[in-house]
Amino acid sequence: MSSQPQPVTSASAPCTVAGAVRVDLTTQRSSRRIRLSPKYGSRPCEVDVRYLWCGAPDAPTVIVQGGISANREVVALDDEATPGWWQEAVGAGRPIDLDRYRVLCIDWLTPAELDGATAVSSEDQADALAALVEALGIARVHAFIGSSYGAMAGLAFAARHPYALDRLVLLAGAHRPHPLATAQRAVQRGIVRLGVETGQPEQALSLARQLAMTTYRGSEEFSRRFTAAPEFREGRFHFPVEDYLVHQGRRFVERFDVERFLALSESIDLHDVTPERIAAPATLIGFPSDRLVPLSDLCELQRRLHGPATLEVLESPYGHDAFLKETHRLAPLLRDALA
Fold first, then answer.
1. Is 175 considered catalytic here?
2. Class in CATH terms, 6-176+272-338
3. DSSP assignment of 54-100, as one string?
4. Choosing from 97, 127, 290, 297, which is the catalytic residue?
5. Domain ranges across the chain
6. How is domain 179-267 classified at the CATH fold level?
7. Is 269 a catalytic residue?
8. What pLDDT is recorded for position 240?
């Protein structure tokens, strides 16, 4: 986990919660320059890792990383700010309790930041986190909580930096991508590349996201929400599910770009970690309705992990996105895993 960190920016202040300043919580939103040797690069490079580190001062640090569309803003600690991507799970008194822990989260790296690397790997993300942990003076990480792509990075972290981690908590993520999920993402990337070639990158990115939404959510949810009859407008029939998908595609284009999507989607499918290398105690959480990470993959991961591992199965209609939608039901599992 060697690095030569250089501070790039720094910001630290008391947190504001529910309109009041919490002087007992601190937040640091900053960037550190660290040195990496990218898996798909030809030479070591320096990269600025953007991070959020917040919670009780001097408390154990918990790394929290989400899917490829997640960023470092896992939680907003000002009630006037836009909520973080896991706002219901992270906060004072919440399952990932900022009264007891400090949460560390980074923006995912891309090949453009890795000095000519042809791709970015889950190992690169793990090495960046490990170098950042060292740069921040964190002796050991209490837990790595990873969801989706974050679970993949967590497994890579545990395999490559075992001395830096106490435990793993993995939601909807495994040691390798399922081939059917890879096939679905490959089609999405093909749509985006065709859009770039034909001068319609944003339209293509929107379509790719719409297709992705059909894999993130479960069949039961779609069956419940989109049973109304189609409407005839603008010269054709529009089905209720179409409006939902178009809305999701539009929102994604507003906050994501083509290059980042292609790189991180590909990174998921390049992921491959040997479970037998991981000795850290692990809690695995899976969802039977998840069509991207089937329970059979999590069962295999549990069997092959070198350290003790438990598998928790949570029934949900929300498919792969259940880790975002079922926060209240996940709360006791998260609390137990961190205890």
1. no
2. alpha beta
3. EESTTPPEEEEE--TT--S-S---STTSPPPTTTTTEETTSSEETTT
4. 290
5. 6-176+272-338, 179-267
6. Rna Polymerase Sigma Factor; Chain: A (1.10.1740)
7. no
8. 85
